[in-house]
Amino acid sequence: MEVHGRTRVPARHVGVPNWVMKTTMAVTGTVMALFVLVHMLGNLKILIDPGEMDTYAAWLREVGVPLLPHGGLLWIVRIVMAACLVAHVWCALVLAWRGRRTGTPGSRRAMGLRGWGARLMLPTGILLLVFVAVHLLDLTIGRLVASPAFRHPDPGFHASANVAASLGRPVMALFYLIVLFGLAVHLAHGLPLAWQDVGGSGPRSRAVARVVGLLVAVMILVGDAAVVIVSWTGGL
């Protein structure tokens, strides 16, 4: 807020309007949530038959060939996800900075559990950023934090072995479980908020969005946690 004499007037933001940033966060967050959900469904193949996961990983690299080069679809998805991540984080940081600058705190105390979800969005978001870096190093690049048994995923025939070797380490398995809980909290609060930011204003639609957000969060938590626990305990 800016003060002119005795009158307090809202500070004017220079640049992209807040509603554009909120809509961008809603769209990019939903796209990333859908990716995580599909990724979890692919991970579940390892519980049925590790060989099916390897076949699936190899198939992903052949989709669209010869129209696309080998691995072309994967690179398209990676570029889209990277763009969504950058836009999402940038908008979140700018909105947080603007909120602090104008001194417009929300009514978190009166919101109960949703207030806790709002408070945890920033720390869980930071945790997820760290996880993205660790996950890429661990199971895609094979550097620094990767298992000594890591084998390059291309052409995709070592996906299940890499997962089992990585999550067979207690420290890494525990880290993944902590991240999954953080992701569930982030999704359970973020998906209904995204619906609201793109125009879902009715109380019934907001209630449905909260239920859907919670269901998606629980599905991803339970599905991926099952893979982590089974790998950790040597079930693969």
From TrEMBL:
Q: Which UniProt keywords apply?
A: Membrane, Transmembrane, Transmembrane helix
Transmembrane annotation, as ranges: 20-41, 75-97, 118-137, 173-195, 207-232
The protein's matches in CDD domains, at most eight in alphabetical order, are given as: SQR_TypeB_2_TM
SUPFAM superfamilies found in the cross-reference section: Fumarate reductase respiratory complex transmembrane subunits
Checking InterPro entries in the record gives: Cytochrome_b-558 (IPR011138), SQR/QFR_C/D (IPR034804)
Highest taxon of the lineage: Bacteria
For this entry, the protein name equals: Succinate dehydrogenase cytochrome b subunit
Q: What is the lineage of its organism?
A: Bacteria, Bacillati, Actinomycetota, Actinomycetes, Actinomycetales
